[in-house]
Amino acid sequence: MKRIIIAGTIALLVAVIVTATIGQDGLLQVFISNDAVSQAVRVVLIGLLATLLLSSQPRSIEFRSALSVASAILSVGVAITLSQNYMAALDALIYIEIAIIFALESIESPVLARNATKTKAHSI
To answer: Which of 78, 89, 81 shows the shortest CA–CA distance to 27?
Structure first.
């Protein structure tokens, strides 16, 4: 389920990038930003989400620490830019979703992840 949510978020970000790049006054463009900084942030977030999608559990403590820092920075950044009306609504919702994904992935328990892989191996 977790991988489906991450893959769906990547697909949504790709759709937003394509719409912002080549869209022609569509309804989606009302709710997204199409400046270069927003596009660069989306590409970086796609890379981070792809890393989560491709990496296996248990992840190292350094990686989980980096995810928690990224989640905090993204959450605070969204709160500040949204409160000052610098960010579009759909961008804010997508970034908050990604921050929640990063936060949940950063608090995974290595013991539970190891037990989950052992259970899968034993059930086969």
So the answer is: 89
Helices (H), 1-124: 2-22, 36-54, 61-83, 89-106, 110-123
Q: How many CB atoms lie within 10 A of CB 113?
A: 14
Residue-level pLDDT, tens digit, the chain, 124 residues: 788 999 999 999 999 898 888 877 777 777 888 888 889 999 999 999 999 889 877 788 888 899 999 999 999 999 998 888 888 888 899 999 999 999 998 887 666 656 655 655 554 5
3-state secondary structure of 55: coil
Q: Give the residue carrying structure tokens 């830019």.
A: 81
pTM over 0.85: no
Q: Distance of CA 61 to CAs 75, 105, 110, 111, Å?
A: 21, 11, 9, 12
Residue from 111, 80, 78, 107 nearest 95 by CA: 78
